[in-house]
Amino acid sequence: MAELAKKDEVVTREEWLRDDAVEFFKSIGEDYKAEIIASIPSNEPISLYREGDFIDLCRGPHVPSTGKLKVFKLMKVAGAYWRGDSNNEMLQRIYGTAWATKEDQQAYLTMLEEAERRDHRSEERCLARHDAGARLYARRRSHFLYRRSTARRMRRLYGSVASRAEQALIESLRRTGCEFEISEGEGAFYGPKIEYTLKDAIGRHWQCGTIQVDFSMPARLGAEYVDAQDQRRVPVMLHRAILGSFERFIGMLIENHAGALPAWLAPEHVVVCCISESSADYAQSVAQNLKKMGFRASSDLRGEKITRKIREHRVFDIATEKKHRINGEIRIPEVRLIGVEGEQLGIVKVPDALAMAEQHDVDLVEIAPAAVPPVCRLMDYGKFRYQEQKRQQEAKAKQKIIQIKEVKFRPGTDEGDYQVKLRNVKRFIDDGDKVKVTLRFRGREMAHQELGMRVLERIRDEVSEICQVEAMPKLEGRQMVMVLAPRKKAS
User: Fold this and answer.
1) Domain boundaries, given as residue ranges, for the chain
2) Is the pLDDT of residue 325 over 90?
3) In this structure, which CATH number among 1.10.260.40, 3.30.110.10, 2.40.50.180, 3.30.980.10 belongs to the domain 2-99?
4) What is the homologous superfamily of the domain 145-256 according to CATH?
5) Could you tell me the end-to-end alpha-carbon distance of the chain, in angstroms, rounded to an integer?
6) Dist CA 410 CA 387 (whole Å)
7) Which end of the chain is more exposed for a tag (fewer CB within 10 A), N or C?
8) Distance of CA 219 to the CA centre of its chain
9) Cα–Cα–Cα angle for 454, 456, 459, nearest 5°?
10) Which ranges of 147-196 would DSSP assign to H, the alpha helix?
11) How far apart, in whole angstroms, are the C-alpha atoms of residue 424 and residue 206?
12) pTM assigned to the model
């Protein structure tokens, strides 16, 4: 493809007679394309595209020349049966993508990676219910970037009533200062509406909330009211769905934040707990001040132990990179001190320990905060961190991370696919990884489990020289599982 892009050959479209096209492709051994032509309706033209000496069947459209295809990427390769029938030949399917600029291509690839990482439907995630956090607070205005649009005019269907309703919706958007656009051809059959389209963190747009004016349903229900002139009138119904489908909105929210939901979404931001009745008034005043600042806050004034109150209310555990408190960060009266050479100096007041650290031009480092009193040592903390990181890097270089790779088979896997999968098993074993061989049964195949066992035994025998069976084949639901591990090399 890179060579074709350099040549910048012109791509032209040609329409051929059906018989001529069939004869041409059969003459060059392209029987599949001849079969495709036979399936095209007789009233549709047969279009071919020519690029130099190369001619191919395609509906189009195409780029004007190959020079436009300088930015491309091959995504994956997969096998596919011709016409989706397993009785036919297995063909090779190549997936690719092409873009006008490298920036556009990179943005697209990043979007695919982020979409896969954020996919809330992934089956390889740990999901758990937590009763204290199983509620969501719906804000009237969100932090999403959004655009709003009104539907097409409905005067033709409903006359002046529809026109007035449409103008009312437009006026409401203008008064609230919302930017919007009129989307022609997207109106509902029963009346005008406002649609909210949300843009997520990776640039995708989702139709979400809607406010709809319905002229049809009240008349069908026979709903009426009496106006100021004692005349019977048919009311207009307003459909209000702020979040649209709630389940769909939650899925969008999870993907937008990659599972890390923002703190403002919590039903309650802060709970101020008092230790005793004497501090109840102060706790209430703190909670009131937090509310004035925009937090959803409350106070817990019950006569319970403070530890119980903390357990009952959700808290954030914020992990910091720093593992030790040093120097002025140590705010306790006294510590058990270890000297520069490792000698025990006994229990020392913190100001005295800091003075000793300054005298020796080192740091006072807390190494055992859980001890009573906490244990501190005089040391050069920068040098200590450097040596610790160096030890970790050396340990990491020596360790081998063994991964478990999965290769899936079927009782009826054909020989070609079997050999491809077997090569993958051998490659994973050669890389030092374990392999989980999964054989899945479908439908009536469960009645012939011996066929699946034969496949697993064949795999075991063919790779016995490079690996051993760590977990013998066992049935888990509708699948058999066997785990292979590399043989230990003789030292």
Assistant:
1) 2-99, 145-256, 270-312, 327-398, 404-486
2) no
3) 3.30.980.10
4) Bira Bifunctional Protein; Domain 2 (3.30.930.10)
5) 49
6) 52
7) C
8) 45
9) 110
10) 155-175
11) 40
12) 0.40
